[in-house]
Amino acid sequence: MNNLARKLERKKVYDTTEYQQQNQPQIKRKLRITSGEKFLYFSTVAGLVFASYLVISTFASIYIVNSEIHTLERSISAQVTNNEALQLQVTELSAPNRILHIATNELGMSLNDKNVKVVQN
Question: What's the pTM?
Fold first, then answer.
């Protein structure tokens, strides 16, 4: 009888725990992402990618333009120094004494003051 009482007691405990487990409301957690959230995530990521593309392309174009500006400035400065050297040559070559020396010695001309005409600008 002792065994029979224990079996009934075990059955009673088993039935009550099974009953309690069945009657407890089960909470189902939904971890699904809705289609609206998917659209928001996708549009946010696409916007960030597009914005980063714009920033990078803008900086690249600015870098290219700056390098072109620097090359132009270097060529301008080289041309300015070349022009200054040529202007110095012009002033040296157009000296009146030099012209008179070339005319008398190399070309065989003579200076006649009666035939000299002065031209003014």
Answer: 0.51
